């Protein structure tokens, strides 16, 4: 199944067993989600065949029912707690927050880090509320790159093109690009960037070598080789500069003398400010 709201769809079917495919899709549209296919809908319906005979979804004290709901990951939506309520108030009801959070989550960012990122942007949402949203509405554990691509390409939620582009970028480029698109500005590590670019160029070089021989292939290999050489020079130059800086610090050494530490009597020949006499000072030094 390739739908990030699989658990929400199952929830809809459990609490309203008579819901049709169209009814479920209408609920998904209301919640800003794309439609579920007929095939995936039928897969979700299979959960109804496993519901206990004496099923009481609204009875939080019915052990058989609550045990089944917890086992199938549906309990906190049937019986909302404070985290579920926060999810509804601060995420589902806040389009700006939701868009940023969806971008972060689909890039593979853990819900704990996504919560911290939202706080940095001025949208404090608890980790558990983010975890609830991730579980029920935007479950990246259920979606690989192919799953997200299929979902976004068939999007029926009415998302505008720029937002869909940001989502595609988050899936392809990963957490750092997603955080940048969401508005998170981090200090860049120049050397790390150069090392990543060098690795990318090298693997592109390996892929290009497999192409049939042609003028274009020779040109591409030449450009990649020159690019790798320039980056390698920059990295080595940075390492050399660091070594030179460290060498400069080696010139500064802590010097220590061999002079004898003066005695208390030398420092205070007539007594101390604590009114200790000369004899008392001599007596204390002997001890």
Radius of gyration, whole Å: 33 Å
Oligomer: single chain
Order of helices and strands: HHHHHHHHHHHHHHHH
The chain-level structural class is mainly alpha
Largest beta sheet, briefly? none
Overview of this structure, please?
With 287 residues, this protein is an all-alpha fold. It folds into two domains: 6-182, no CATH class; 190-250. The chain is built from 16 helices and no strands. It has helices at 6-15, 21-30, 38-45, 63-71, 75-78, 82-92, 95-106, 111-120, 127-136, 145-153, 161-173, 175-182, 190-209, 215-250, 264-267, 278-286. Helix 7 (95-106) packs parallel to helix 11 (161-173), helix 10 (145-153) packs antiparallel against helix 11 (161-173) and helix 13 (190-209) packs antiparallel against helix 14 (215-250). The protein is flat, with a radius of gyration of 33 Å. It starts with 5 loop residues before the first helix and ends with a helix. The mean pLDDT is 80.
């Amino acid at each position: 199944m390739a739908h990030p709201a699989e658990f929400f769809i199952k929830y809809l079917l459990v609490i309203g067993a008579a819901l049709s495919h169209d009814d479920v899709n209408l609920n998904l549209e209301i919640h800003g989600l794309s439609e579920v296919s007929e095939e995936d809908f039928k897969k979700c319906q299979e959960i109804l065949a496993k519901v206990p005979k004496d099923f009481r979804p609204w009875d939080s004290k019915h052990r058989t029912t609550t045990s089944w709901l917890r086992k199938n990951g549906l309990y906190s939506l049937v019986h909302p707690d404070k985290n579920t309520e926060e999810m509804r108030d601060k995420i589902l009801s806040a389009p700006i927050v939701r868009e940023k959070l969806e971008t972060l989550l689909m890039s593979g960012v853990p819900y704990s880090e996504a919560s911290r990122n939202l706080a940095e942007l001025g949208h404090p949402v608890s980790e558990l509320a983010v975890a609830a949203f991730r579980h029920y509405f935007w479950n990246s554990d259920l979606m690989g790159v192919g799953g997200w691509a299929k979902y976004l390409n068939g999007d029926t939620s009415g998302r505008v093109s720029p937002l869909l582009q940001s989502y595609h970028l988050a899936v392809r480029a990963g957490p750092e690009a997603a955080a940048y698109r969401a508005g998170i500005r981090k200090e860049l590590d120049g050397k790390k960037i150069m090392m990543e670019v060098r690795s990318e160029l090298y693997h592109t070089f390996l892929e290009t070598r497999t192409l049939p021989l042609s003028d274009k292939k020779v040109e591409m290999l030449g450009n990649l080789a020159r690019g790798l050489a320039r980056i390698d020079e920059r990295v080595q130059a940075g390492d050399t500069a660091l070594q030179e800086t460290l060498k400069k610090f080696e010139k500064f050494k802590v010097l220590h003398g061999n002079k004898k530490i003066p005695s208390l009597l030398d420092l205070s020949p007539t007594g101390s400010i604590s009114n200790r006499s000369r004899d008392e000072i001599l007596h204390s030094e002997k001890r």
